[in-house]
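Entry 12.
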Amino acid sequence: MSRNREELCMEVCRIAKDTGSYIREELPGLSFSDVETKSLHSYVTHVDTNAEKKIVKELERLLPEAGFIVEEQSIKKEGGDYRWVVDPLDGTTNYIHGLPCFSVSIALMHKGEIILGVVYEIMQDECFYAWKEGGAWLNGKQVKVSGVKDLSGSLLATGFPYHDYSMLKPYMELFIWCLHKTHGVRRIGSAAVDLSYVACGRFEGFFEYGLNPWDVAAGSLIVEEAGGKLSDFSGNDNFIFGREIVAANNEGVYTELIDKVKEVFKKD
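Predicted 3D structure (tokens):
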């Protein structure tokens, strides 16, 4: 890869914003007849698929040797050491109902490690981005996780299970516990945005299961570069492909949260 990471990140920000403009422009004309069901409570529209094709075309130009992990499967290319991880529209359910929280999420992996991440929250025109060892940024200004030191002063985010109900009972136990222990729990419908909000200090923590790599890849790096901490539900680092994630602003909040997560989900 001849480009430096910051330069490449700026190009990816441009691609995310251009794609976001297309998604925003298509919203007024969208109807429920445009919505297809991929699986239980999982939806796709022509906007998702067209947006993904636009992103893939631009990313192939930027880094021809890279492979892809993409939600809508518009391309199958393994690649070598580099792989793009793309969600063209994170928050499709919000989008089809006209709820203004949905995003474009693009990450770059090198030998299994996320080295670049961009999350563009379309309706707020907020572009969160990070490159490895380069800090976390929002619209040109560096961001950090909040300074809240414990759960009692924290606002958390989560995502409710929408097709995998196998762990619903412990999830609800955790959810109720968090309601009692924190300032509150929010569910806004885009994991990429949830993670970005942890990175910039709007949330102190986030937890969810049933996730895919494209939901969390970009946001996880943004949290890390903003000074936050992440793991899977066991406290290990398999949060990209492990389908579960805990993110927090600091060791104190993280420790309180992960200890309860391990307890209710019976993790070692």
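Annotation: The chain has two domains: 5-143, 151-265. The mean pLDDT is 91.
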